UniProtKB/TrEMBL annotation:
Molecular-function GO terms, alphabetical: DNA binding; transposase activity
Name listed for the protein in its UniProt record: Transposase IS4-like domain-containing protein
Organism in which the protein naturally occurs: Paraburkholderia sprentiae WSM5005
GO biological process, one term: DNA transposition
Domain Transposase IS4-like, residue spans: 21-77
Length: 91
């Protein structure tokens, strides 16, 4: 059995912010960037799942399901940017 250097291991429970621990500005900036990306992605999935009922998919083959998902996500992006698109069309 090989000896494992425990100093190099990083577990997920070590990344949890403990009570009284301070978060430095670099970590705060990283968290903010992750949250921005996560929010933008999750809004698209919310439209697809809640508005259009794309919660469960019947297996029709990977290609058909992938195409259906890609089209649904593309339409969700158009749906979410509809105000900006309409503003650019109107004078």
């Amino acid at each position: 059995m090989a000896c494992v250097d425990s100093a190099r291991l990083t577990f997920t429970n070590q990344r949890i912010r403990r009570a009284g621990g301070d978060v430095d500005e670099v970590q705060r900036r990283k968290n903010r960037n992750k949250s921005k990306i996560r929010a933008r992605v999750e809004h698209v999935f919310a439209v697809v799942k809640r508005l259009w009922g794309f919660t469960k998919v019947r297996y029709r083959g990977l290609a058909k399901n992938a195409n259906r998902a890609f089209v649904a996500l593309a339409l969700a992006n158009v749906y979410l940017s509809r105000r900006q698109l309409m503003a650019s069309i109107r004078p």
